[in-house]
Each structure stands twice: as C-alpha cells, then as structure tokens.
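Schema walk-through. Below, the input block comes first and the output block second. Nothing else is stored per chain. Lengths vary across the set, and this one has 355 residues.
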Amino acid sequence: MSQLQNDTFLRALMRQPTEYTPMWMMRQAGRYLPEYCETRKRAGSFLQLCKSPSMACEVTLQPLARYELDAAILFSDILTVPDAMGLGLYFAEGEGPRFERPLRDEWEIRNLAAPDPHAELQYVMDAVSEIRRALDGSVPLIGFSGSPWTLACYMVEGGSSDDYRKVKTLMYSRPDLMHHILSVTTNAVIAYLNAQIEAGAQAVMVFDSWGGVLAHDAYREFSLAYLRRIAAGLIREREGRAVPSIVFTKGGGLWLEDIADAGYDAVGLDWTVDIGKARELVGHKVALQGNLDPAILFASPDAIATQTRRVLDSYGKHPGHVFNLGHGISQYTSPDHVSVLVDTVRSHSRSLRKG
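--- output ---
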C-alpha cells in the first residue's frame, strides 16, 4: 500500500499535535452532491450502489474531489449486516429502509447467526480494497458499522421508528431474547469491522444512532455493554501503525464519561454537547469528534463561518479534535455552503494554533 501523504486525521484521533484540525463529514458522500445523484441514478437503486464495489468507490471519492477533506469514509449502509443475516433489506420509496423478515418470533431470534464477512459481505470488503487503491495514500479510509442496539432497532421494528415500541417492548418483557440479538449482532460487528481493517480501512467507527432513545439504565445494559465488547475485540494495529476507533451515540451527552471509558480512541459528539466542556471532562482519555449542527449549513456563509469558528474556539488549540457535524449532512445542503465550512475549519484552526 502507498505511503500515507496526509495522516492528520489519524494523528488527531491518537491525540497527537497537528498543524490544523482535520475534518470529514458524516454522510459526506450523499444526495447533496449532484454527482452522487448521477451515479445513484446509473446504479438503479441505493442497494445496487452499495453492492457494486466500483460504484461505491466512485461515490466515496466524489466529496474528496470537491473539498479538502482529511479522510474518506467507505460508502455503504449500516444495515448490510442484518441484510446478510437473512432479514431481506429493501428500500421503499419515501419510506427509507425496511426488512421483509423482521425479528418477531422467539424461534427467529434463537436462529439468528452472525454472517461470515468474507461470504455474504464480501462486496463490502471488495469496495474497501478498491477505495484504498484509488485513494493511493492521499488520505486515510474509515470503515464503519452500526452498533448492536441500533441494528437491533431496525431488525425488530422492521424499519425506522418514531416510538421504538416493538423493540422496547421486547427489551423490557423478554430481556433474555434482546440480549441474544445483541450478543449475536456484536459478534457480527466485530468480525465485520476487523474484516474491513484487513481489507484496508485505517480507522473504524461505530454508529450508535439510536442509543439516545434508551432510558438511563437501559443504555448501559443494552447499548454500552456491547459497545465495550466491540472495542475489546477490534484489531488495534495494521500495516505498522495504530488503527484508531471512534464511537458515536447520538443523544449520548448524558453518558459522556461512561462512553469515554468504553475503550475507543475517540468519541463523536452530537450538536447538543458543548465540546469545550466535553474536552475538560474526558479529553485526557479520548479524542473528540464533532460537533456542528448540520442545520447551520442552511444559513448564510457568514453564519456558517461564525458557528464553525465557535466550535473550534470552544475546543481550543489542544490536540485531539476531529471536526465533524453533529450528525449526517442533510441532502438539502448546498455544496457551496460546505466549501465555506471546510475552508473555515482549515484556516481558523491553523490561526488558532499560531495564536
């Protein structure tokens, strides 16, 4: 593999000094980019786009051609794992992801098995390898997975949910079955992420997108405990350097100290958290990633620059900050507004370090 020309992102995750604050964006390859929409149209469907290594590679690289970003993230979907478990993923127009065979009966839950990432999910590994070759050492590649709790929400609900009624009913009435789902899914996630690392991912991220819907004690039992198991099972070094890990619980600000103790190198923050206070609380343990409100990108360029500087100033010139949005970028965002964000992060963080 080529020598890495820009390792700023990886160094920041390991809390090493950097000349500026590196940045990437959650969902940076997506519908806000006209070139992505063109490729997706050519693919025929979102799932076909995910399952074509060459097209997944193409869209992964698109934001890097436009913006001075410090990392690429594999183009895929968190639901590839439950799809490989046989639940029958499909995307209904205007409804988002759905499963043909959600987990409802005890026998279905008992029969659940972790897929072999080199069989049912080989197309993801092929995409990782192809993207690494195409990047040619320009910036690092991030691999990712959904968290066990977040995947279980989709697996039991059958799709996205407003109230999580089915999954929470199962969790409270049959915690034994819920733990079985989570345990099998945790094994699947560990194998999946390690296979991505072996295929070329240089950092990995776990998206606990729905962790924040849990009650205080339930979060510890049904999400955090499994996030810890994943962190303990990850490959930590590859190609002679550390492979850092990031965990992101949306709505997880209340549990920040517990999350920082879970074994990851970095913790992603949503926009409800003051990143300066978070750094004071846990910055001696982990790097922090985040955390601009994605809705700010609908505002004027001046407002975008002001709010971006505010996040950077709050963190200060300490090492260990990866700039990101507090959640995925909206499909309605202007690509020109993203340019303002990227340029502001690069210029202001450089001047901060000199000041």
